[in-house]
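Q&A log
Question type: sequence-to-structure
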Amino acid sequence: MKLSSCAALLAAAVLIAPLSGVTGAAAAQKADAGALPTVNMEAAVKAAQIDPRRPDNTLTPGAKAGVLLVEQALRDLRLLDAKWVDGYFGTTTVTAYANYQKSLGLSGLDANGLPGRTSLTKLGAGRFTVTRAITPGARVSVGGSVLNTRTRDMLAEAKRLLGRDLALDQGSYNPGGDPTSVGTHDGGGVVDISVDGMSAATRTAVVRALRLVGFAAWLRSPQQGDWPWHIHAVAISDTDLSSQAQHQVGDYYLGLNGLANRGPDDGPRTTIRTWEEYRRR
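Response status: OK
Response body:
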């Protein structure tokens, strides 16, 4: 039996109403998510490397708004005293963030105090969304050394710029592998490059290329420590960095040499960029 036109319209309305409700709810959820403030992960990670090494309370450019949101969330979780909610990602905030990571069941490099994508996203639930996320990628073997894919890609680009291969003396994720490294190679993002057969000019060119693609890099000599000539390079903003490597990155931004004496940077001058900034240039 055919429905009357009135009944047909009523049936259609009944069918459409639930669908409209679902669509409306989804739209509302999307609007709510869009209303949340954002944390630029690149800026926050940069601040977490530089701020603890500063001699004063100067804020890392472009990081304050995001760092404040991170600190406010840590305060709400009672991991950070309200007096430290200031947009400065200093040692106290790094320690608080590491404690937050541990509260998630993370350990080792995953609880190093640098905001990782997973932990930062969880911290932001209902508070903020994360933009410009960074990830070190999976661990891979390159020339007999262990690296992550981000570091591997950075090295590959430096080699392309130089038009030559680079041999590794030491890779990443190598805890205790070389005591003279004092922990810098314990995490990701750090490599030592052989300079055997290189002229002084070539050594400088290699350091420059590494810096251009996002490494804090220096030529090391036997006069500086108990090691042979080599190039030491740390991938800026690698979220797997050991604490010691984080400090070297911070010192690099502050014009220092990354050594314990915190002397002036003796390498070629280049614009300091992260790998992500290099790729967007």
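Response note: The chain has nine helices and eight strands.
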